[in-house]
Amino acid sequence: MIASGTEFASYFDGVRLRTVGFFRVIPADRADWAPKAGEYTCGDIVRHVAACERMFVGAAVDGQWRYPGHERALAPTLEAALTDLDAVHAACGVRLRALDAGALAASRPALEPGARPVRAWRLLLAMVEHEVHHRSQLASYLTWMGLEAPDVFGLGVEDVERLTADEAGRST
User: Fold this and answer.
1) Of 68, 39, 28, nearest to 137 (Cα)?
2) Which pLDDT tens digit goes with each residue over 6-16?
3) What is the pLDDT of residues 8-50, one digit of tens each?
4) Contact 48, 134 (CB under 8 A)
5) I need a labelling partner for 32 at 20 to 30 A (CA). Which of 6, 54, 80, 119 fits?
6) Cβ atoms of 84 and 24 closer than 8 Å
7) For residues 15 and 132, is the Cβ–Cβ distance under 8 A?
8) What is the pLDDT of residues 137-165, one digit of tens each?
9) How far is residue 45 CA from its own chain's centroid?
10) Three-state SS sequence of 115-147
């Protein structure tokens, strides 16, 4: 059970590590690639994930919703976007590690005007879900570019099938 900001930050470090594994597969010359006009580019996704971490952590810690944007000018290259993502994550990690169980249970204003307040821990879970959504989006982009997305936990489905065959009553 996650009972403190430190425990959440440690958990989220693992989520981010897996996400960065996907981001590092993006070829530098494809940072501005999108499947069609009007969709996020690969670089937009990286910058957006960083911006949303700032936003969600700000909402959970301070009760303030601020989306700083994900414009290309903020980090014009893939390496600049990844550097910014790392810096944002480090700064947000410091803020999260300062939260105790009481702070996680505190009510925060919802993003939507007039909506019911939300517990800080729910905002942090929403941040994780949001990041995983964009990781999956990028996995689709990589496939459309003819690249292979990494396995999330280092195992492909073939590995899982092989490792669980005896328990499932199948032979390998």
Assistant:
1) 39
2) 999 999 999 99
3) 999 999 999 999 999 999 999 999 999 999 999 999 999 999 9
4) yes
5) 54
6) no
7) yes
8) 999 999 999 999 998 877 777 878 888 88
9) 10
10) CCCEEHHHHHHHHHHHHHHHHHHHHHHHHHCCC
Closest CA to 28 of 103, 78, 95: 78
* Rounded Cα gap, residues 160 and 163, in angstroms: 5
Q: Which residue has the tokens 């982009």?
A: 141
Phi–psi pair at 31, nearest 5 degrees: -60, -30
Query: How far is 71 from 44, CA to CA, in rounded Å?
Result: 7
Burial 114-147 (b: 16+ CB within 10 A, else e): eeeebebbebbebbeebbeebbebbbebbeeeee
Q: What is the rounded distance in angstroms from the CA atom of residue 146 to the CA atom of residue 144?
A: 5
pTM assigned to the model? 0.91
- Smallest CA-to-CA distance from 128 within 31, 60, 81 is with 60
Per the CB < 8 A criterion, the answer to whether 105 and 118 are in contact is: no
What confidence score (pLDDT) does residue 172 get?
57
Give start and end residues of each alpha helix (H) in the chain: 5-23, 42-62, 78-97, 101-105, 120-144, 157-168
Does 171 score more than 70 pLDDT? no
